[in-house]
Amino acid sequence: MKGRIILVVSILLGLLFLMSGGTKMGEIRGPGMHTADFESWGYPLWFMYVVGAWEVIGAVLLFLPSMRFYGALLLSIDMLGAVITVIRSGQPPKAIFPAVLLILTVWVASELRPPGARPGGAAGNSA
User: What global pTM score does this model have?
Assistant: First the structure.
């Protein structure tokens, strides 16, 4: 049952980040809502495209069972940056949604971490 929940959450996160990253990368044709946000946060426009590509890559990895952990890890880093950015910009209420996504991506990553990365796992026994 837990495995199915992780699968469903991973797929939903993958779809959400595929859309989010795709819209950031799609603003090549002209400014949109993401452009205004990145400018208001003081980031250069090229960084929006990097974040968009990062999100698309993370989303694709979430769809691949053997790479799901790495996708969740990439997206956790992305959401940590998003939470910090909106809080630093003086918009704490805007941090709620990225914080929820951060919690979900960290949970997926923690549930799927490779055995050697677990406390007491193969990497921890080399004393």
Answer: 0.85
